[in-house]
Amino acid sequence: MVVRMRANRAHRDNRRAHHALKASRLSVCSNCHKAHLSHTACLNCGMYRGIKVFDAGKKLAKKEKKQKSKQNANK
Ligand SMILES: [Zn+2]
What is the pTM of this model? Predict the structure, then answer.
């Protein structure tokens, strides 16, 4: 690239003016009253709009199992 084409500080900063991160919009679960991402199943209880989408307890147990096996591997 030629120096003539190089973006100056103003061009660079104008481009980066749109790079700010937005806070994720959280809504409250109707089942367990915990915060979860809107349009997404609740990670705490696995409910989405009053329907059970996945077994949250099962997933939690699996996660704990994985952590335990990891801890044993480190020993
Ligand atoms: Zn929930």
Answer: 0.50
Mean pLDDT (10-residue bins), the chain, 75 residues? 88 96 90 90 88 78 78 75
Sequence ranges of the domains in the chain: 22-74
* Span from the CA of 65 to the centroid of ligand 1 (angstroms): 22
Residue with tokens 């801890």, as numbered in its chain: 71
Q: Cα separation of 17 and 31, whole Å?
A: 39
What is the CA(54)–ligand 1 centre distance, in A?
Answer: 11
Q: State in Å: Cα 30 to ligand 1 middle.
A: 7
Decide: helix, strand or coil at residue 47: strand
Q: Which of 59, 53, 55, 31 is nearest to 41 (CA)?
A: 53
For the record, the structure tokens of 21 come out as 């991160």
Sign of CA dihedral 55, 60, 61, 62: positive
